[in-house]
Amino acid sequence: MRSEYDFSKGKRGAVLPQKHKRRISIFIDNALLDQLRVRGEKAGTGYQTMVEDAPRRYLSASRKRQSVPDPDLSTGE
Fold first, then answer.
1. Measured between alpha carbons, how far is 56 from 61 in angstroms, rounded to an integer?
2. Burial (Cβ within 10 Å: 0-12, 13-18, ≥19) of residue 74
3. Is the Cβ–Cβ distance between 50 and 36 less than 8 Å?
4. Is residue 51 within 8 Å of 36, Cβ to Cβ?
5. pLDDT digit string (tens) for 7-30?
6. pTM
7. How many C-beta neighbours within 10 Å does residue 33 have?
């Protein structure tokens, strides 16, 4: 690393914090993660988007089956 770089005032964390999102750690089966990565690459969205969309779709379908009003899940709120 070059000596002219000064990171003394640097801060750890996400470069751009995103509203309505929180960083968490989860354990996902390797085979499932591999499939999500492949499908995400084919779809052009990435696996993390697919990981986020799956429970959102599940909750939306579950609410429809239970006739519960569906809050706006598209924004993550």
1. 9
2. exposed
3. yes
4. yes
5. 888 888 767 777 888 888 999 999
6. 0.56
7. 13
